[in-house]
Amino acid sequence: MTMPSLTLKSHRFRAEREADWRRLDALLVRLERGATRGLSDDEVTSIPVLYRSALSSLSVARAISLDQSLISYLESLCTRAYFCVYGTRTTLVERIGAFFSTAWPAAVRELWRETLVSAGFMVLGAVVAFVLTRESPDWFYSFVPGDLADGRGPASSTQELRDTLLGTHSGSGLAFFSTFLFTHNAQISLFAFALGFACCLPTAFLMSYNGMMLGAFLSLFSQRGLGFEFGGWALIHGVTELFAVTLAGAAGFRVGWTLAFPGARSRLDALASAGRIAAVVMAGVVVMLGCAGLLEGFARQLITNSYLRYAIAAASAAVWLGYFYLPRRTAP
Amino acid sequence: MSTPAMLNAAPSDNAGSPDYQGTAARVRELVTPEGVDLRLTLADASERASAFLLDAAIITGILIAFSLLTVGAALFSGARSGEFVGVIWLLGAFVLRNFYFMVFELTPRAATPGKRILGIRVTTRSGGPLTADAIFARNVMRELEVFLPLSFIFARGGGVDSWIALAGIVWCGVFVFFPLFNRDRLRVGDLVAGTWVVRAPKRILDVDLVARETPTVIAFTVRQLDAYGIKELSVLEDVLRRKEPATMAAVAQRIRAKIGAGATAATDEEFLNAYYAGLRGRLEGRLLFGRRRRDKYDKP
Questions:
Q1: Quick check: ipTM above 0.95?
Q2: How confident is the model over A40-51, as pLDDT tens digits?
Q3: A173 FRET partner, CA 20 to 30 A, in A5, A14, A162, A180?
Q4: Measured between CB atoms, which of B2, B87, B144 is closest to A195?
């Protein structure tokens, strides 16, 4: 009796193809470890070929074989190979390049309506707080939490307030300060974006609250005749920071609005595409807040001349607006 | 090779090996451009939760080690470079909190260490390539699912504040338990990014049971081989792969009684191996003629 097992067609089928499967398996293990460079040209070009033959093996095995371990092995092998063959093929550097040259500005332009709404909420909050605080300075305490006020308030003397507008640091501690500002603000705006999922309401609240704090401060300082100086102090980094926060709110609004009103597409599809655009904007917001942190931590503390501060604020506004909204040639 | 005819012949209900049984509701179709359905299985809620807890433990561990290291460095180097160490710590903690998941999910295996241990990975619901923006979106939503509930839980204050915190926790529960209330086990991040999490275990190719060392040849009649169907065959396959003597003895006894096999000199294992080879040959032979006998209640 010579090897009766070979009379099984499914066994012969496996014996003929097993070597190819094992070769593909070994290549996938190396690819999954990220050892793309270690592969020779021949090995790289053989992957799609081996993948297609494994797929055809899977179809045949499902049709003729009753060996469950073989079928589940082939399913797992084909799935892994599928992700390798049809996964992303761009490198990290290419992705970052594409992000800054096209994806980010395009996503920001796409969200122009939400950006206006987001900015509207912030301005509304600022105006309300400004008017209320001018009528009765006690409102200041309602808008600004104690730790943020940092001793500044209607009870402070004009001289004390003026001092806070000057660069108080002499150079040491600035790096820590600006890093703290960056991580804190970035966390808050990521949070504001995520909250958009709850049908926009928490994001709208955060945007107007942010405006209210600004309005309360502006009102306090302008009553003491320090409005101009306060503007320079706040805007030197505020242009970048407020723009970033506005965009974070806009991204949150896009997601929340799509959840509530998905339009013609199914809710799941609409939400997925809204989420991706919003994610691109949010990645950019983190970059912008990094710049704002540097401006706030270094430039504001080292530059005390108000005109110079306004000049930097205007320059940064021009840079961001030009970068996002100036028409550009689209890639063919 | 992969002709549509073969696809049509593929079983609609695959009586899988035991670890695949009971997962039929979580199998999703993914048809490759070559036209083959890969039949992905979604990860269930417990796998997702375990993977997350593992990752959370890893993050916490790294953060503690990193903090001790930076504190040590600050003490050692004195106040002058203490600021530098502080910057490193702030940035490190920020990156760890926000980019741990993203960095690992951007690798070819699209899985964090926790997910790798559980044998699951992230992929797009459409089957297309997983892009960086999708990964960013699904992970930023953790703010809502993890950090928002935590901030309510650790909120301090008495009276009205504690009631607000309680209301907040209830509200957050909607996001935290979201995956339990939909068929695809999507969390909020998956919803926004268009992704889901599937099983992608790395399997090793077991030896073919019929190719083992020369099997004892026992002749079975067609009638004896027609006693069982495909479902029983896969159970038998599992028994033979596990090789537990007690189970094999019990199974061999039941099969012998059912098919009325006379006493032979073969051991239980040899008998089962021989019957497996015979049954598989019989069923596969019928399969080639387009007859897929699901189980023993099906007509032979």
A1: no
A2: 888 888 999 999
A3: A162
A4: B144
